[in-house]
Amino acid sequence: MPTRRDIIMTSLMSGFTLAVTRAEAEPIHTNDQGLLAGEVQIPTQNGAIPAYRAAPDKPGTFPVILVIEEIFGVHEYIKDVCRRLAERGYLAVAPELYARLGDLSKMSDPQEIFSSIILKAPDATMLSDLDSTAAWALSHHGDAARLGVVGFCRGGRDTWLYAEHNPRLLAAVAFYGPVTGTTSGIQPKTPLDLARDLKCPLLGLYGGADSSIDIADVRKAAALARAAGQTVDIETFPGAPHGFHADYRASYHKDAALAAWAQMLRWFRDHGLG
After folding, report:
1. Which of 76, 134, 168, 242 could join 210 in a cystine, given CB atoms 3.0 to 4.6 angstroms apart?
2. What is the rounded radius of gyration, in angstroms, for the C-alpha atoms of the chain?
3. pLDDT at 2
4. Is 210 a catalytic residue?
5. Which one is catalytic: 123, 210, 245, 247?
């Protein structure tokens, strides 16, 4: 069985990813005053992976939100998302799901990341690592009855898959997550293939100017899930590109990002995660 020595990224990267051009505007920074925030280690079936945790620094238990990264790793943007959620009373945890496959802190070519890391990441491992992260959170002041998930880009795709996997989830939010794509032996099904298995209400947030995702496929997945009795809402934001919430890069669309974030919070609250 693999050990911790097989984990390539034994700690999280500092700062922002090297793999995209930064926006001219200053990214949002949420300080950790009043929060318990920082790196933790998540025990999994084959070694401990690093993760970022943020939660209110006070007694009690808190609703848990698993935060699923883009393809670029758990860098400062994803950490800040966790702190923003913690400010709203959540225990937010973002595991480094690609820790076994390469050091994302040193990679600057998105195409290389996709071909050498993302396409080599087994979906079964991703789902198992998210289960392990949920278990860790629930043993560290997380409320076992209140579990949700949010993800961005590839993490949005993984949010669909995790919501089709874990019946304990109360709600899921996918930011511009593709529901189709190339399949393989280690990534055998797309979210569209499994749409009838959706286990919880899901909100999909998509850019109206996103040329990388066919919104018709997303609506087809939503229709299949609804036909199976699940609640799905797909929202599009006119003029917003792919990655519109990523405030650290040029794709950031402030109006869409703020509106989508508000819809996410409302979705969680309306489905028992308030």
Report:
1. 242
2. 17
3. 37
4. yes
5. 210
